[in-house]
Design brief:
By secondary structure, this protein is an alpha/beta fold. It has 13 helices and 15 strands. Helices cover about 35% and strands about 20% of the residues. A hairpin with a 2-residue loop joins β4 and β5. The radius of gyration is 20 Å and the shape is globular.
């Protein structure tokens, strides 16, 4: 079996899902070619797992200081380049096109009538789940941005809909168990890539009773008192995620999924003007899994760090392995059946 796997590279969450899926596709002996879009190639990191992958411009949202800048998004979008890439992509040698909200592979498969499967959190929004600031535009975007014949939506709860639990890039083993045992009570992982990083440092400086591991674009590896700053990195980030007790982040899906699985104390600050992140924050509130703030301040962070409230816990199955086995079937079963099996 040969798969073309398209990955939306705007955020690291889609790539993290591809890392998890890629491990099981490789174990199954499936040949996979990867295409990433939405971020320049020089901004990608720790990509050795994906071999000789392609990078295309695609489409992405421009953010500034924690808000979506729609004007800059429209200015920088190149629909002409997108459609040229769609037309130039030859899917004839592939048995399946798999897309994680990546538009070039999705539309190429649709035009060439190639078997296609979409997986990702965005496809959960085609069902009745908690949503904030949803409208016709957002509905059309989720339906048509990266379409496929079969759509596998992912979320933290099923909400009585045919959606799947999260795909988490972590395999429980003795090494991870040891890392969990060494969790530091006052260690906080901070990942707010859409915020002004210097402003974030300023907010954390007064909170000297905690040790912060701050990751973000433009940061260098340095120590500022009780704050360790890091550029984006895979293995160091995973290690800090394992040993921290608290996670402060925007409301992206994948990191929160990993933090929930590791039973971290979580606060999210959703990206303003981004319906998906605001809906994620709403779902976390309704499920009583995390704390939410819509504006960052030293006071809000301190209150969360010192609160005694207990949040719910989760224990998700190995979704990546299950989807891989499902894809390998000659005639994959109904998504409803796969959903019920995984949630059970």
């Amino acid at each position: 079996m040969k798969i073309l796997y398209g990955v939306q590279a705007t955020g690291n969450g889609h790539i993290s899902r591809a890392r998890a899926m890629g491990k099981y596709l490789a174990k199954a002996g499936i040949q996979v070619d990867y295409l990433f879009s939405g971020r320049p190639a020089e901004q990608l990191f720790d990509m050795q797992q994906f071999g000789d992958y392609q990078v295309k411009r695609g489409l992405t949202f421009v953010t500034e200081a924690g808000k979506v800048n729609y004007w800059q998004t429209l200015r920088q979008a190149s629909v002409q380049t997108l459609w040229q890439d769609v037309k130039a992509l030859d899917c004839s040698s592939y048995d399946l096109v798999l897309t994680d909200f990546e538009p070039i592979t999705a539309h190429a498969a649709k035009q060439q009538k190639k078997r296609s499967v979409a997986l990702g959190h965005q496809y959960a929004f085609l069902h009745k789940i908690p949503m904030e600031h949803a409208n016709l535009v957002t509905h059309l975007m989720f339906r048509h941005f990266a379409p496929a014949q079969i759509r596998l939506g992912l979320h933290w709860h099923h909400f009585n809909q045919p959606i799947l639990p999260p795909i988490i890039d972590e395999e429980p083993d003795e090494e991870h168990d040891a890392e969990h045992a060494s969790k530091e009570a006052n260690r906080v992982l901070v990942y707010l890539p859409f915020e002004d990083q210097q402003q974030v440092i300023g907010l954390l400086k007064p909170l000297t009773e905690f040790q912060f591991s701050l990751y973000g674009p433009g940061l260098a590896k340095a120590t500022i008192g009780h704050i360790d700053t890091h550029p984006p990195a895979l293995h160091a980030f995973k290690a800090d995620l394992a040993r921290c007790s608290h996670v402060l982040s925007n409301a992206g899906f994948e990191l929160i999924s990993e933090a929930l699985q590791l039973q971290k104390h979580i606060m999210v600050k959703p990206l303003q003007g981004q319906m998906e992140q605001q809906s994620n924050a709403l779902a976390l509130q309704q499920l009583k899994l995390a704390c939410r703030t819509d504006s960052l301040s030293t006071g809000a962070i301190a209150k969360w760090l010192n609160e005694k409230q207990q949040y719910g816990t989760v224990n998700y199955p190995n979704v990546a392995s299950a989807i891989c086995n499902w894809l390998l079937q000659d005639t994959p079963g109904e998504v409803n059946a796969l959903s019920k099996t995984l949630w059970s």
